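Example A, followed by Example B.
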Amino acid sequence: MKRLGIALVLMCLTAIPVAAQVPDEFTNLELFPKDIGKRELMSAMRQFAGALGVRCNHCHVGPDNLEGMDFATDELEHKRVARAMMQMTDAINSDLLPTTGRDSLLRVRCVTCHRGIEKPEQLDDILAAAVEKDGVDGAIARYRELRDEHYGSGSYDFSAGTLNGLAEKLARESHDADGAIRALELNVEFNPDAAYSFMMLGQLHMMKGDKDGAVAALQRALEIEPDNERAKTMLERAKAAE
């Protein structure tokens, strides 16, 4: 679990023996003040590690326990990218956000985008790529895997809208009604009160000539939202269909 990984990073960096392994003087500091204190720098490193769900050797060369770690080297690409990301967030906070003219602006931080994930991809993009590579089966398996690992962490958007979007993409762009239905069935498994998902299911079942399936889905939508006029109209049409 990512949470466990983050906890281990925090334990690693805050433990007294490990703190002793971090040098008292620092070299090759490009973005931090040259005279930054050890406690302040370690606090910043903890924030980076927690935001990305990684350990110290993600950016620094050496073992997990920090003993003998070469903090100064720029050998790893991740460290060079991290510097660029720090410059980006600084530019956003210092130069771009003030142009909104608003007061009390919230600062952008690593965790704003990463949320405990090394590569901050959106779930809908991940699922679309999985469909392209491994079909709907692959996308469903990937969704279940990510949900098992990250649900509740805020790393990905597991609300009903994500799978609704995938279903719509499958139906409209790929003309894969069966795949869209499977995506929606997965959606209502985890989001059983998503009325719109049942309405989409009803519409797709009607397209396939499955009157019973359409009626059942639309009735469920109305159980959730009894005053949904669109669902009522769709249900009347489904019942009247030959």
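Example B, a separate protein, is given below in the same form.
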Amino acid sequence: MQRSEAFDILRRIRDEFSAAQFAVTDLLRRPPCDLQLLKAKEELGLTTGRFQRCAANLEITYIIRLFCEFEAVLLDYWEHGLGRPTRPKARVLMERIAAGRGMAPDHLTKAHDVRAYRNEIVHEGSRTSRLSFRECSTHLGRFASWLPTQW
């Protein structure tokens, strides 16, 4: 894999998040007078409340997805770039890669903040937004920038 491929993976998730956010926001802003749209929503059992919940959870949903893809990139580097057959936990994986690449401590710390936030969402059911998608994307991108150009 090349580092540029890793960035493309993360960029595509950002782009999908933007598209989903636009679509849900647009749908919620439309006046309920489009009969075809109303009929389609009704047939699927989609209420305004469901779309509002979707909008409320959209960012954290994409943060989880972003971190999953980031972790997959790191595991690919771990296996193919470093020849390591193990599958360490994300924290250990990040620590070892950062140490091996001589990463700036701040970049590791910020990426750990994203990992901890993801854990709060997934394991503790947190719905309190303490990092934005943009912040998460930036922090994980900075970490990824320390990976070699090809592995």
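On Example B: The longest helix spans residues 48-81.
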